[in-house]
Fold:
Amino acid sequence: DAGITQSPRHKVTETGTPVTLRCHQTENHRYMYWYRQDPGHGLRLIHYSYGVKDTDKGEVSDGYSVSRSKTEDFLLTLESATSSQTSVYFCANSQGYTDTQYFGPGTRLTVL
Amino acid sequence: QKEVEQDPGPLSVPEGAIVSLNCTYSNSAFQYFMWYRQYSRKGPELLMYTYSSGNKEDGRFTAQVDKSSKYISLFIRDSQPSDSATYLCARKGGAQGGSEKLVFGKGTKLTVNP
Structure:
C-alpha cells in the first residue's frame, strides 16, 4: 500500500489559470514522483523529488513546477494551464531510488 | 524509438484462457523489469518484479525476461474476469545516471469475458 492520497481527485479549469495538485504520503519515503497518463503515450514522468527541497526534471517537465517543503507532501503546479495539460496525473513514492514505486489514485484534470 | 514497446491491444479472451502479454525493450543495460496492473480509473499497482533473465512465478502469474531477445512477458493462467485491466510493463536500471528512472510501456488493455 502506497499510503498516498491526491487532491483534488477531479478538477476542471480554464486555459491560463494556475493549478496546484497535491500529493500526500503517510510513509516517510524519501522519493516522490509525478506522472501524467495520456492515451497513446502511457505514463510519463514529469518531475521527481529525492528529499525535502530536492527535485529534478523528468521526461515531460515543460510547463510544470514542483515543490517539496515537507517529506510527506509533494506539490505539482501548472503555472498557466493549457489544454495540452488535460490528463490524469499520478503521484508515486518509493523508499529508495531503486525501490519499487507505489502509486496514488490519480487526479483527473481538464483544461478548457 | 521508445525504450519500452508494448502492444496496446485491446486483448479479449474467454474466462479460463492463458493470457500472454509482451513487451520489448531497446537497451540491454536494463536489469529490472516490472509489471503493473491498472484497473479503470485507478492508479497502477505493482504485480510482478523481476531482475535480469529468467522466470518468476506468483500464483497464476508468471513473469519472464529474455535478455538475449530483449523481450519481457507476463503470463496469466486460468484467467478470470477480475483480471480485466490494463497491464503496464516497465523497466529501470542501467549503468548510467538517469537510467534508474522508471520507464513504462503504453499498456495493454485486457478483457476476460465470463
About this structure: The radius of gyration of chain B is 14 Å.
